[in-house]
Amino acid sequence: MNSVGTIGRFYEVDVQFPPYVHSSREEVRHSVGDAVVIECMVDANPEPDIRWLHRYSNETKQEIDLSRQYSQEKLDKKREDRIWFIKHEQLNATRWKTSLFIQRIPKRLFNSNFICRAINRYGQGEQIITMLESHHFTKKHRHTSTTSVYSSSLSSVSTTTGRTFDEIQCLK
């Protein structure tokens, strides 16, 4: 301490920066008719304009702005037949979470890109997420059986399920 005394001041620092957009996944795999949520986190200051865009392929650079049509605020809540909608949530002063909800994936969306883009006066950032088709194959099991003879009794056991033929017939 000095003889004059002490003085303290507080300053608020407002660091401004272009958007940084990131997602935990760069591709999503689903099947036709699945529901999916694609999420992105956006860090920026000042607040960015956040948009979801759709590009059918990398060859065509044409982007469809989904945000203009499908943002949560613009949707009629009674419509059950919509394919997708978008929601933005501010988590703190410089972070947002944005989600694209797709209710039932149509086949035409596979092998295409969804772009989460954020823009403010300092620049822009984006994350591209590719939608790929995942095939859910149902395995078709053939009934194979082995025959063993023990003291003149015949037993047939399925090598696929481990059950006897009589047990399998009862399950049908």
Automatic annotation (TrEMBL):
<protein>
    <recommendedName>
        <fullName>Ig-like domain-containing protein</fullName>
    </recommendedName>
</protein>
<dbReference type="InterPro" id="IPR007110">
    <property type="entry name" value="Ig-like_dom"/>
</dbReference>
<feature type="domain" description="Ig-like">
    <location>
        <begin position="19"/>
        <end position="130"/>
    </location>
</feature>
<dbReference type="InterPro" id="IPR036179">
    <property type="entry name" value="Ig-like_dom_sf"/>
</dbReference>
<dbReference type="InterPro" id="IPR013783">
    <property type="entry name" value="Ig-like_fold"/>
</dbReference>
